[in-house]
Inverse folding.
């Protein structure tokens, strides 16, 4: 799927790409509404009816991903709540082997995430091996704009110095893949099953990686050559 002869830098999303999105979906769709319902003494449906429209208003923007924004808006200790559910954080199948293969091949592995630095820190704490495979890690909060917008790609390229024409992006978000492709990353790939607790995606706009193992041998081939 990936033309590794044309790749020096691999830009990698975190949640839903390297890590199982089940944690984030559970946190935002289940754990947080339940906490709101308990603290405000309302029903779960009432809590969801309050929270979900607020989320829809800022979907895709930096506020959508910002722990500080939601803590101020909801008056809930999100960091503590994330700690309580952190046991769900983990690599997706084959992701760690894929990262190891990238390291052996000499390709740069660069994390580009919309996760708030607080969330990123928690996940690196729970999956400490991840940080060791990365050459760099950038959060959209470092640049003041989410990955869904071209200004993010301007900012990260200016700071990192990757050559767009020799770069590939792996991300589970169609909006992010579209933004990166339109900005100038020639190879962009989605993820077939970001959340392992949900069925795989189908009918996607972009080619989907079903299994990292199908990509790893090609990386090794480049290494051997």
């Amino acid at each position: 799927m990936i033309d590794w002869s044309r790749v020096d830098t691999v830009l990698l999303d975190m949640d839903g790409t390297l890590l199982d999105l089940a944690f984030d979906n559970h946190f935002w769709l289940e754990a947080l509404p339940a906490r709101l319902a308990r603290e405000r003494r309302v029903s779960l449906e009432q809590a969801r009816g309050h929270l979900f429209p607020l989320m829809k208003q800022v979907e895709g923007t930096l506020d959508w991903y910002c722990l500080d924004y939601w803590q101020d808006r909801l008056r809930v200790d999100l960091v503590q709540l994330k700690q309580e559910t952190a046991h769900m954080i983990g690599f997706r199948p084959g992701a760690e082997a894929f990262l190891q293969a990238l390291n052996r091949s000499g390709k740069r592995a660069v994390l580009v995430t919309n996760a708030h630095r607080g969330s990123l820190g928690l996940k690196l704490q729970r999956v400490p091996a991840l940080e060791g495979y990365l050459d760099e890690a950038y959060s959209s909060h470092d640049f003041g704009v989410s990955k869904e917008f071209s200004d993010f790609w301007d900012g990260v390229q200016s700071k990192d110095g990757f050559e767009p024409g020799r770069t590939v992006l792996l991300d589970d978000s169609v909006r992010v893949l579209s933004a990166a492709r339109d900005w100038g990353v020639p190879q962009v790939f989605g993820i077939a099953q970001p959340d392992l607790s949900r069925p795989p995606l189908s009918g996607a706009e972009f080619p989907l990686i079903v299994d990292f193992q199908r990509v790893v041998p090609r990386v090794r081939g480049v290494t051997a050559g």
